[in-house]
């Protein structure tokens, strides 16, 4: 039996025992009180093995969830696609592809940050700092407009209505008890977010900027 957990509801996809090519959705769309044992036990086992929280995170939805359409082409919104989507909607595709392009365009800034940490004199440090500034400007100039791009009919490629009401409930934060052999263990799951990207913490670290929130620092360390 395979299982599909949707938005904290008791909805399962079961494979027909007589014909494995047939699957059926079973359950209700009412909010679930906990994650059932047959899902939580293997999920927690995998979580502990990988030393990752038992949840969908930024790596799963962005960093390891795309391919080039043209293998020899650039990493751009027109040449990458998601491998897996939660909703199957193009609004979701555009939302996550924006992050993919940002990560790619920030390569110069990350390389410059590493070089700054290895600089042997002030001249080298200034040279790499200039490269860092240019890299960040490239991200701002090339990537910020992507978020506001519209289709030919004038509608946004990522509708705020669809994002908030359709996608966000699937990736939002929340607490959920995981059933097991003993008392259910409750996990607070924050869902995938661009805040989990290592890009800004990397830049902050090389510039000596500390996170003002201990809670946020602890969260970023997990991912």
TrEMBL record:
Keywords of this entry: Iron, Metal-binding
Pfam families on file: IDO (PF01231)
Cross-referenced Gene3D superfamilies: 1.20.58.480
Signal peptide: none
Example GO biological process: L-tryptophan catabolic process to kynurenine
Gene Ontology terms for molecular function: heme binding; metal ion binding; oxidoreductase activity, acting on single donors with incorporation of molecular oxygen, incorporation of two atoms of oxygen
Superkingdom classification of source: Eukaryota
Homology family: Belongs to the indoleamine 2,3-dioxygenase family.
Entry-linked PANTHER family: INDOLEAMINE 2,3-DIOXYGENASE
Listed name of the protein: Uncharacterized protein
Source organism (scientific name): Polarella glacialis
Classification of source organism: Eukaryota, Sar, Alveolata, Dinophyceae, Suessiales
């Amino acid at each position: 039996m395979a299982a599909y957990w949707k938005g904290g509801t008791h909805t399962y996809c079961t494979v027909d025992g007589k014909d494995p090519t047939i699957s059926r959705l079973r359950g209700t769309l009412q909010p679930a009180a906990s994650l059932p044992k047959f899902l939580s036990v293997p999920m927690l086992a995998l979580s502990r093995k990988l030393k990752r929280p038992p949840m969908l995170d930024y790596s799963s939805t962005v960093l390891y969830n795309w391919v080039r359409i043209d293998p020899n082409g650039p990493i751009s919104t027109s040449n990458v696609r998601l491998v897996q989507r939660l909703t199957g909607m193009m609004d979701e595709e555009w939302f996550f592809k924006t992050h993919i392009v940002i990560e790619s365009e920030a390569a110069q800034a990350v390389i410059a940050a590493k070089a700054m940490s290895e600089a042997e004199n002030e001249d080298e440090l200034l040279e790499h700092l200039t490269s860092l500034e240019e890299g960040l400007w490239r991200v701002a100039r090339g990537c910020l407009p992507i978020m506001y791009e519209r289709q030919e009919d004038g509608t946004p490629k990522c509708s705020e209505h669809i994002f908030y009401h359709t996608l966000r409930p699937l990736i939002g934060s929340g607490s959920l008890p995981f059933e097991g052999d003993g008392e259910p263990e409750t996990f607070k799951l924050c869902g995938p977010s661009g805040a989990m990207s290592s890009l800004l913490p990397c830049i902050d670290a090389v510039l000596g900027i500390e996170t003002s929130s201990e809670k946020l620092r602890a969260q970023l360390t997990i991912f």
